């Protein structure tokens, strides 16, 4: 084996290691953001991921890059869950309810994200549009399936529903007695209209 052959053989392993490190960083950052918010120290995220601080900065040059990557990753997971829940074979209303539960969990665990989005950092400018572009169509698909099965009233607007869920989740950070999940459950039950 020549030196070039051994370098080529080692290169895919590095890419796999880099992918594992990036995934470990995303998972560690997501967990840290839930418990401590988006301003958690980078060294804490690195420790959770089992990597050095330099590894974080190689993958995500700024904190904003890391925050955006974590939330894009989570938005993708939420978007992919909708069709999977519909395909499970249960009722479309059950799929919708379960997806809204996932969406609610996504929202109530985003400590500090709203402030970050309003910080003026250009890295965050496209995050909200990405969020809507990915999740509104999934919600619409679930609503349409539930309406077609005559499980909810027809004509529900996906954007309005997601906005309503979002508004119900706002108080979760500031009042320990406020149960956003319970409020969202009441909203989703009201879609049935029967």
TrEMBL record:
- Look up keyword Cell inner membrane and say if it applies: no
| Annotation: DNA-binding region | 41-60
State if Aminoacyl-tRNA synthetase is listed as a keyword: no
Q: Which UniProt keywords apply?
A: DNA-binding, Transcription, Transcription regulation
Q: Which residues form the HTH tetR-type domain?
A: 19-78
**One Pfam family this sequence matches:** TetR_N
- List the signal peptide residues: none
- What PANTHER family does UniProt report for this protein, alphabetically? HTH-TYPE TRANSCRIPTIONAL REGULATOR BETI, HTH-TYPE TRANSCRIPTIONAL REGULATOR RUTR
Identify this protein by name.
TetR/AcrR family transcriptional regulator
